[in-house]
Every structure is written in C-alpha cells, then in structure tokens.
Amino acid sequence: MPKAKDELLEKVKRDFPCDPALQEVHYARLKIHEQTKGMSDQEYVEFIRMKAKKVMGRDSI
Questions:
Q1: Residue 39, SS3?
Q2: Domain count, the chain
Q3: Lower CB density within 10 Å: C or N end of the chain?
Q4: Residues 3-29: b if buried by 16+ CB within 10 A, e if exposed
Q5: Is 49 inside any structural domain?
Q6: What confidence tens digit (pLDDT) does each residue in 2-44 have?
C-alpha cells in the first residue's frame, strides 16, 4: 500500500475505531478531498460526475 493510503487508513481507524462502515465513508471522503485539492468548483463537479458515471456504469449523469 502507498504511504499516503496507509496514513489515511490509520487516521480513519483512529477517528472511528469501532465502526468499519464509518471508516469506509470517512476514507472515501478524505481520498476525494486529496484528489480534488486546488480544483475550481466546475472542475470538482466534473470530477464527481466522472466518478458517478463509473459507479453507475452509464453516461446519463
């Protein structure tokens, strides 16, 4: 695992030690935050749309 991922996982485990579901959500939120630093609002919206298309498996978003 890359060091940055290890650090994020350790942080979420400390923040939510007894709740694996919240660890997953918190990790995803932190990862998105890291990936979108410095983006304009429009770039951020397009990034989220791109990710949603991948999850949904379609181009209707």
A1: coil
A2: 1
A3: N
A4: eeeeebeeebeeebeeeeeebeebbee
A5: yes
A6: 777 888 899 999 999 999 999 999 999 999 999 999 999 999 9
Rounded to two decimals, the pTM is 0.70
Question: d(Cα 19, Cα 23) in Å, to the nearest integer?
Answer: 6
Helix or strand run (H / E) with residue 52: helix 41-56
61 inside domain: no
Q: Please report whether residue 45 resides in a domain.
A: yes
Structural domain containing residue 28: 3-56
Element (H, E) at 6: helix 3-15
Tokens for 39, please give them. 């983006």
One-letter amino acid for residue 56 of the chain: M
**Does 47 map to a domain?**
yes
